[in-house]
Design a protein that fits this description.
This protein is 27% helix and 29% strand.
Length: 552
């Protein structure tokens, strides 16, 4: 007796049934509903429409007036969009294009056809650009497309500096502008961009928008505006023509409690530790991410090549790992740049520096990356170069006043600081580069000579942490007050650290890894910048020295 078998023909059966139903429709056989749209009558079967659309299912199965009517009038629906939706119901085929998406998506939303809605959203997302994102955002918000709206807001936040200069943003209704200005995630080089947008939006239609000034100005984080920026009170006086009202606003935003609670836009949330050495001959290509909220380190995709004495900075929400000593195919000082994208957890190459460097200083100022000093394998360097995000290329900048390697750089108030280092003696000297004048000048030196130390910026202070004095590994900490041009001692770390990584997150300075003079370190000290106290945090999976550390 033959064994019974069971064959699943559901897919073939479904495709065949849809094809047969579509043939019936095309030949106007057994059609029981006529949809009247824009003066056209479109024949269909109620059962097919009901199976494809909750809207039609409710219309034809519930006690509604249209339930038994042979003709239904549909108002405010584009006829071509309706044809496309009916074709999709019978065939499953759908073509979304720039010419039909603006009529198709509202119709699909009206009839609750989620597959079509999702496909339209994917189309819009794939064609997203800085020049159309504002219009798509308003369009998506109008039709309650939550997921698409969320992605658009993220895109606008990430590209705010470019989008804020477009004429289209000046046409935004105030509710959209407020949503932008409230965001902590605006990717701005400085708060000046936010101020300029508010100013431009108000002045573009002053008579009807002046009533919103107070509300909008409160969303500008005034303490974050640099002193070198055109005086905020002066600009506001021109805007309002009412110096007393402006003074009230300015004073309220400068209040002590406001300053203390005012945070940077797009403030960092995690630490990224990458590369370095874990032993005399053990170089690393791994990367670990630290989340202070749960005190956990997590390993992500490693570097393409092991490297140490490199630099790491975050720019445009990506981690740039720059230069250093690369170990493959052989040990060499490198000028290469590789970029880690947290969205895809992947590395990709970026334009190489003009010079090969290790043990150099690297910082970000107004969205551009500045690299200075270091060692090229034969000479100590004082050369500085800048990577322009807009041009996507490196360009030569004025040299420092002296050669430096194994030093640290910091950015504060639109100035670049080159601190300490070696070249060819241990140094405590500090020099400052003014971005506006393009001039270097010396400022007050550190209290201690240091090489291979960490640096971090918080409020008006530059903190230097650990390092080596030429005679001893250091656990001392000092800070530079840029207003007073003076240095002062802070509480020391729990142990000495040379080749340490430092970064600030949420008012806490993290001192990560390094070398104690006896061993390579994986542990982490955390310094509360307000209370001037240190405590221990969870350590990395691997000890690291001479590595890249940045807050993202």
């Amino acid at each position: 007796m033959a064994k019974e078998t069971e064959t699943n023909l559901s897919r073939v059966h479904s495709v065949g049934m849809l094809s047969n139903l579509n043939d019936l429709r095309k030949h106007e056989n057994l059609c029981d509903i006529s949809l009247r749209v824009g003066g056209c009558s479109l024949l269909a079967h109620k059962v097919v429409l009901s199976a494809s659309s909750p809207y039609f299912k409710a219309m034809f199965t519930q006690e509604m007036a249209e339930k038994n009517q042979p003709v239904v009038d549909l108002k405010s629906i584009d006829v071509e969009a309706m044809r496309t939706l009916i074709d999709f119901a019978y065939t499953g085929n759908l073509e979304v294009s720039s010419s039909n998406v603006q009529s198709l998506l509202p119709a699909a939303t009206h009839f609750q056809m989620n597959l079509v809605i999702d496909e339209c959203c994917r189309f819009l997302e794939s064609h997203l650009h800085i020049y159309n994102c504002i219009g798509i955002w308003r369009f998506a918000d109008t039709y309650g497309l939550f997921q698409l709206t969320k992605k658009l807001v993220k895109f606008i936040n990430q590209n705010f500096d470019e989008i804020s200069k477009l004429d289209e943003i000046l046409e935004l209704p105030i509710k959209y502008l407020i949503k932008i200005l409230k965001s902590d995630d605006l990717n701005v080089a400085s708060e000046e961009s936010v101020f300029r947008l508010v100013e431009a939006w108000i002045l573009s239609n002053f008579s009807s928008r002046k009533a919103h000034i107070h509300k909008l100005i409160q969303l500008v984080r005034m303490p974050l505006l640099d002193a070198s920026f055109l005086d905020a009170k002066s600009r506001l006086n021109k805007l309002l023509c009412n110096k007393y009202f402006v003074q009230d606003i300015f004073n309220s935003t400068q209040a002590t409690n406001f300053k203390e609670s005012c945070t940077q836009r797009c403030s960092p949330k995690v630490l990224c530790a990458v590369g370095g050495k874990s032993g005399l001959f053990a170089t690393l290509g791994s990367m670990e991410i630290y989340n202070p909220e749960n005190d956990i380190w997590q390993t992500v995709t490693p570097l393409p090549h092991h490297r140490y004495e490199c630099g790491a900075v975050v720019c445009d929400r990506k981690l740039y790992l720059i230069g250093g000593i690369q170990c493959k195919p052989y040990k060499q000082h490198s000028n290469s740049v590789t970029v880690w994208d947290p969205e895809s957890d992947s590395w990709s190459p970026a334009p190489s520096m003009m010079k090969c460097r290790s043990s150099f200083g690297v910082i970000v100022v107004k969205g551009d990356i500045y690299v200075l000093g270091g060692y090229d394998g034969g000479s100590y360097l004082k050369a500085m170069e800048r990577f322009s995000q807009q041009k996507q290329q490196w360009e030569q900048m004025p040299d420092m006043l002296q050669t430096r390697t194994c030093f640290s750089a910091a950015s504060l108030h639109d100035s670049v600081y080159a601190i300490g280092g070696y070249g060819p003696v241990h140094q405590s000297s500090v020099e400052s580069y003014n971005i506006a004048t393009q001039m270097w000048s010396y400022v007050t030196p550190m209290l201690t000579k240091r090489i291979n130390f960490g640096v971090a910026v918080f409020k008006d202070f530059i903190y230097v942490v650990g390092g080596h004095s030429g005679t001893a590994h250091l656990r001392s900490v000092e800070r530079f007050n840029s207003r007073d041009n003076d240095w002062e001692i802070c509480s020391p770390m729990t142990r000495p650290r040379t080749g340490v990584g430092t970064a600030v997150i949420a008012g806490r300075l993290y001192a990560v890894g390094g070398h104690s003079g006896h061993e390579y370190l994986s542990d982490v000290d955390c310094y509360d910048l307000e209370s001037n106290t240190w405590q221990k945090c969870n350590g990395m999976d691997l000890p690291r020295c001479g590595f890249g550390l940045a807050a993202m």
